[in-house]
Write a structure and sequence with these properties.
This protein is an alpha+beta fold. Helices cover 37% and strands 27% of the residues. The structure holds flavin-adenine dinucleotide and 3,4-dihydroxybenzoic acid.
Amino acid sequence: MRTQVAIIGAGPAGLTLSHMLHQQGIESIVLETRARDAVEATIRAGVLEQGTIDLLTEIGVGERMQREGLRHAGTVLRYDGRDHRIDFAELTGGKTVMVYPQHEVLKDLVAARLATDGDIRFEVSEVSVHDIDSDKPYVRYRDSLGNTQVIHADFIAGCDGSQGVCRPAVLASHPTFHEHVYPYAWLGILCHAPPSSDELIYAHGGGGFALVSTRSPRVQRMYLQCDPQDKTENWPEARIWTELRTRLRTHDGWAPNEGEIFSKTVVGMRSFVIDSMQSGRLFLAGDSAHIVPPTGAKGLNLAISDVCILARAFIPFYKDSTRTLLDNYSATALARVWRAQRFSWWMTSLLHTAPGADQFQKRLQYAELDYLARSSSARAVLAENYVGLPMDFPV
Ligand code: FAD
Ligand code: DHB
């Protein structure tokens, strides 16, 4: 079997890449270890940057997002019992974000690929990549019936997340990476309740960070800073609501709307950036190349901007064999990744309570929050990064 680009992983990166390549007349096959239902049901990210909204719309998969997504023109920073609104639209010349869950983006992408006879192979196993440093790379895997298959391709796109096989394949020849582990994690919950706020609330409060997000008029998403070793069993409903009320309390008595909690997960917090996003004919995109802590809501958006850069680099190769953009892919993508990594680290440090922080560190953190409350320039820096820095397209 042969294709032009073999794509490993049907997450946001792999599916968007496959769709964008199809629109340029470039063939791909997507291999995914999980079943379609599982891919479409995994609860993860919720916030789409302006550039992601525009791209999904431009490539024709944004119709349901535009209809059902919740456009947010600002966010609330809460500390010391007071709210400080960051007006994204005003501070960035009209840019906003969209709350539209990642699994809904995935449903739209899978539907769009299948509607144009896209080749997505779910429930494969034992995926391995071979001869990536030659011009005849290939992928071997076992299909859902247990038969071994081989796909020969011009290129392989490693979109298989942080636990896939493509990251180790690149590290084998380019072993450098940069990592930082944070001393906190998030307990994420979903509950049946009406929204507590029109906009997301990022709160630095007694006992740690809390975040109020939303999913729909009847389902709400909230996060609480917890210990990285913590387990969901340690968080019965009553404890979660007590903590949320404490961390989110304002001087005028604000409290979240409560309702039955039907999902709880502990999410670790890590920064990771690989030093090269390519090795020979294997290109990494999304979480396979980098991980950001969730505070800045950048992970899904970075996966999309990587594949946008990659898809545009494949076009001149297939048009007239020009390789310059492909050769520069890693450098182009990493420049933006590091800026997003910086913002995610900064926003994480700004809002969490670091175990063991001394008074000096606490006063600095408070001064940083206070600066944001008082300075529209400081708020503009936050807003510009939150709605998403421009994508660096190769020219
Ligand atoms: P993934 O989504 O991980 O997709 C990889 C796919 O590859 C998976 O479907 C996997 O099953 C498959 N796969 C793995 N190994 C193999 C293999 N060997 N062969 C074939 N297939 C394989 N980001 C944001 O931008 N905004 C947010 O608000 C946000 N919130 C988050 C909240 C939570 C709780 C979590 C956990 C993450 C959040 N993120 C957020 C991060 C975001 O979800 C990820 O960055 C994003 O999913 C990365 O997309 P991806 O396509 O690179 O990888
Ligand atoms: C959500 C997740 C985030 O990481 C974030 O910063 C904001 C919102 C969410 O899942 O809704």
